[in-house]
Amino acid sequence: MILYHYEMSPYAEKVRAMFGYTNTSWQSVLVPPMPPRKGLDALTGGYRRIPVAQQGADLFCDTGIICEEIAGQNNNQDLSLYSCDEAVADYSRRIEREYFFASVASVPSKVLLKKLLKYHSIITGFKLLRDRAKMRKASSVRMPGAARSVKLFNEQLHALEEKLEHAFLFGEHPTFADFSAYHHLWFYHELGAQPLPDEVRQVSAWFERMHAFGRGERDEKPIRYALAQASQHEPRVIDEAMQSPNVGRDITIQPNDYAQDSVSGRLVGEGPNRWIIARNTAQYGNVNVHFPKEGYAAAL
Questions:
Q1: Angle at 263 between CA 62 and CA 49, to 5 degrees
Q2: Distance between CA atoms of residues 41 and 47, nearest Å
Q3: Among 169, 178, 213, 265, which one has the highest count of C-beta atoms within 10 angstroms of its own C-beta?
Q4: Which of 195, 211, 227 is the last residue of a domain?
Q5: Are 156 and 103 contacting, i.e. CB atoms less than 8 angstroms apart?
Q6: What distance separates the 2 farthest-apart alpha carbons in the chain?
Q7: Per-residue pLDDT reduced to its tens digit, 138-162
Q8: At what angle do helices 63-73 and 176-185 cross, to 10 degrees?
Q9: Looking at per-residue confidence, does 130 or 274 come out higher?
Q10: Do 231 and 286 share a domain, yes or no?
């Protein structure tokens, strides 16, 4: 599997950590933290979020779909938001909805700027800050301010402390919920270099267990490698279960919360949790782009 990502992306870290847990070998393609992303934009049709995964001529957008692919390849339904236990899925959705932005905003801006300049140029850093400000302004979800974020993040830490009666959130093995909670703390504690309070010892121990999984076997590749993979393959055969009355129609898909750039194509597969759209790219041939239904809207 190829992963388009950048080092500071918390959602990419969610996938990288799952690669570690599943001992997955993967190809890393580093991309800018904001559009334009030459090559990748041509494949996806302008989808702006990161990470994006790729296998041959199939592109997978959003960590819900990417993790479902990883879960299927490892025959582990606990790693898929759409196949795991209902309690795990509900918990995962709630912590993402209530705490993700608070986790990010709890890191002091000076720390983030310093870290940003470690990975990117000053010009890229300036462009990223301007891009994120525009994205927040256009968002349909209300993002908490700094003071509110710190309060919410501490609330999350203590809720996790109470929840951790076992090695992981729902037992002795990690589930999708563990990775959903982990990338919040990774951004705050690992990337943001902020200490975890002494009173959340179970959280600290859990974080170390999650971190110890590593990131799988990572092989750095230039983007031309990924683009060549798309050119040299045809999209995989779509399962008959993904047929619906809407297949064959033109479709436009976009997130319904933030980063709401739309992608258009021809619908070639539809299931309870996923749309698959076909795109014919002049440079790289035919590709299929997979989107989750949850968190996205479609116009047919």
A1: 35
A2: 7
A3: 178
A4: 211
A5: yes
A6: 57
A7: 777 777 888 999 999 999 999 999 9
A8: 130
A9: 274
A10: yes
Q: Is residue 164 classed as helix, strand or coil in its secondary structure?
A: coil
Residues 13, 64, single domain; the answer is: yes
Which amino acid appears at position 39 of this protein? G
Token output for 90: 């509900």
Write phi, then psi, for 174 (nearest 5 degrees): -70, 150
CATH number of the domain that residue 185 is part of: 1.20.1050.10
Domain count, the chain: 2
Domain boundary among 211, 227, 243: 211
> pLDDT by residue (tens digit) across 252-265?
999 998 888 899 99
Return the DSSP state at 127: H
Q: What's the pLDDT at 157?
A: 97
Cα 222 to Cα 208: distance, rounded to the nearest angstrom: 31
Range of the domain at 120: 84-211
Q: Which of 81, 80, 64, 61 is nearest to 4 (CA)?
A: 61
Match 């279960």 to its residue by tokens. Answer: 241
pLDDT mean across residues, the chain: 95
Same domain, 176 and 150: yes
- List, in sequence order, every residue forming a beta bridge with 59; answer none if it has no partner: 54, 289
Q: Helix or strand or coil: residue 55?
A: strand
Cβ proximity of 120 and 126 under 8 Å: no
Q: Please count the residues of the chain.
A: 300
Taking the CA of residue 57 as centre, how many other CA atoms within 13 Å lie in the half-sphere pointing to its CB?
Answer: 20
- β-sheet bridge partners, residue 54: 2, 59
First to last CA, the chain: 30
CA distances from 123 to 32, 40, 60, 105, 120 (A): 12, 21, 29, 22, 8
Burial of 259 (0-12, 13-18, 19+ CB in 10 A): middle
